[in-house]
Amino acid sequence: MFKILKYSFYDLMRSSWSYVYFLFYLGLGSVLLFLNNDVSKAVITLMNIIVVLTPLIGTIFGVMYYYNSREFTELLLAQPLKRSTIFIGQYLGVAISLAMSLVIGLGIPFFAYGLLQSTEIFNFLSLIIVGTFLTFIFTALAFNIALSNENKIKGFGYAILLWLFLAVIYDGLFLISLVVFQDYPLDKLSLTATMFNPIDLSRILILLKLDISALLGYTGAIFQQFFGTNLGMISSLAALLIWVIFPVYRIYKKSAKKDF
Amino acid sequence: MFIVINGYAQTIEVCNTCAVKSINEAIAKSKPFGKIMVQKGIYLEHDIIIDKPLHMVGINNPIVDGEKKSYVFIVKSDSVTVSGFTIKNPGQSYTKDYAAVYISQSNHFKFENNTLEKVFFGFLIEKSHYGTINNNQVSSNAVDQSSSGNGIHLWYCSNIRIENNEVHNLRDGIYLEFVKESEIINNKSYDNMRYGLHFMFSNHDEYHNNTFTNNGAGVAVMFSKFIKMTGNTFTQNWGTASYGLLLKEIYDAEIENNTFQENTIGINVEGSTRITYIRNNFIRNGWSVKIAGACYTNNFKENNFLNNSFDISYNSHMNDNTFNSNYWSSYTGYDLDKNGIGDVPYRPVKLFSYIVNKTPETIVLLRSLFVDIINFSEKVSPVFTPDELVDSTPLMKPIQ
Predict the structure, then answer these.
(1) What is the structure's pLDDT at A219?
(2) For chain A, what is the radius of gyration of the CA atoms?
(3) In chain B, which residue's Cα lies nearest the Cα of A199?
């Protein structure tokens, strides 16, 4: 598996897309930190971007990589290798290279700015953790879609649709349902609905750092318990982990049965 | 014979080995305007009634322990000065306001450099005028509001100066009811159950350069007129009903140069009229300013609103308040003529803050892309938020 991972990883490292992605974060981080001189504002802007952009890049890259390397995959399948090794290896290659672009791209400007001396280090860490999780989740989801669809156009379509749904439409439906049912107790519903969307989960994780004062403004015992203690952070992280494990498990299952 | 001689002496000394062993005894023996020096030691006394003008000095921090029975010091005379004592354990009661120091109908008192510990009420001052409370430490270990008292409690007083004190772990740090023309300066009030500083029916008072941290609410100003608030810091008042500053039914106040940082609600305004907010900093609060109802002619000028989750929350369509020349960190406009003023007006009330007012649970969608989209569409054509509530001269750079 590590050999496949290494090949995929080097393959991607050689492609200019990784560099573009890396340079994008490097540029963005530097501009926000050095031209603005307001770390809190930079973190808020970065959060808005990471929460939307990493899933998009993750899905597109995952689908693209799978379809592009199809011939190579078929060649590998002819070798005495386990299928799970091939696909999980490819998945990890893509996800790790994307995550690295993010971590290094944002890490350099933050360290250059003197992050280690500032109190913003926890905000930075939560940004990085959330970004990495989102990359892993959405690359896995993209691989799932690609594995299930032979037709490239269909695959791409579903991938984009998935991103659009989780990034925008889900929140819209969520908001409308909360407003429609506002006469009912909604705190459990709203927290549960958050768990079913990795983008919302990541947002909550960052809000726990940035906007805790606003989150504690709502009078409700469940919210208080969730946001006021470590429960919120622990359960969000656990849910994100499940969001990684479940799609990866499905890649494993699906690839074992797939007919090439 | 001895008593007579001692009576003429200006100074009476109290200690475990002296002729006078208790403070009560010393007061009884002292003449008006005499001086009592209390040496280091523990004095188990309560209901110490000071009924003549006296100057009492604690030397090397003598401890007066009320043994949780009743009041500790009771001042019933003008011109009493007390300094350098540690006073602790007054009684605790649901029917009587036992205090470490109880001052009643006495003017020109002065309490300096005392430490009040484990108190029910710290200073309880009634119908007294021209007093000074300076450099004292008042603390307790309050666990709930009903069984705890206030640090410095003033009732029907005027011209009192409360300066450089530290009050913590009480119900209200400093409480003023029917208090006029008093000044509260440079105090630190923190970890109190209810309010750091609480005004009720008190007019023409001022408070400057105080720090209020982690209280139920920093400062509550209710039913008061002509209050000046400058240079104070309100931080980390977190919770469901927590405010940096709570204004309720107040008129003609001035709020200048204060800093509101990381509070759930920076300022909560209800039924308040003719208030000017100038050059305040609102930094990373949940809501900087939450305006409930019946607020007229409030004027916000030259304030900095930096990275708050919500800048202004407003629950009615009518607006009679003005916002001018403030700096808003979430302003996205441009300044083509380079005069430092944004060319596009800023709308501080977002559609999402209106939604959160209606359905509080939606707060979990804060900073979601969808919310940004609906905020943007509301900005383009306001439907739900007050149309005329705009800052038409937003600043491009924060005010230093």
Answers:
(1) 66
(2) 20
(3) B368
Percent of chain B with pLDDT over 70: 98
- Chain-chain contact of B364 with A194 (C-beta, under 8 angstroms): yes
**Euclidean distance between CA atoms A192 and B17, whole angstroms:** 71
pLDDT in tens, B318-352: 778 899 999 998 888 899 999 999 999 998 888 89
Architecture of the domain whose range is B1-216: 3 Solenoid (2.160)
Instruction: Report percent pLDDT > 90 for chain B.
Output: 60
pLDDT higher than 60, residue B2: no
Three-class secondary structure of residue B292 per DSSP:
coil
Question: Sheet of B152-158: strands edge to edge?
Answer: B48-50, B73-75, B99-104, B121-126, B152-158, B174-180, B195-200, B217-222, B243-248, B265-270, B287-291, B310-314
Q: Which residue of B has its CA nearest to A227?
A: B364
Q: pTM (2 decimals)?
A: 0.85
- From the list B219, B230, B232, B307, the residue with the least C-alpha distance to B269 is B219
Q: Which pLDDT score, from 0 to 100, does residue B196 have?
A: 92
- CB of B368 within 8 Å of any CB in chain A? yes
Q: Please write the tens of the pLDDT for every residue from B228-238.
A: 999 999 998 88
For B41, left (φ over 0), alpha (ψ -120 to 50), or beta? left
Q: Point out the least confidently predicted range of A43-47, B43-47, B106-110.
A: A43-47
- A-proximal residues of B, 31-60, CB under 8 Å: none
Q: Where are the domains of chain B?
A: 1-216, 227-349+385-400
Q: Is the pLDDT of residue B119 over 70?
A: yes
Query: B24: closest CA among B38, B3, B55, B45?
Result: B45
A interface residues, B as partner, C-beta within 8 Å: 38, 40-41, 44, 47-48, 51-52, 167-169, 171-172, 174-175, 178-179, 182, 186-187, 189-191, 194, 200, 203-204, 206-207, 210-220, 223-224
Does residue B211 come out as left (phi exceeding 0), alpha (psi in the -120 to 50 range) or beta?
beta
pLDDT of amino acid A33: 85
From chain B, pick out residues whose CB is under 8 angstroms from the CB of A180.
none
CA distance A152 to A145: 10
Identify the residue among A213, A225, A229 best suited for mutation to test binding to B, counting B beta carbons within 10 A and taking the highest. Answer: A213
* Residues A218, B309: C-beta atoms closer than 8 Å: no
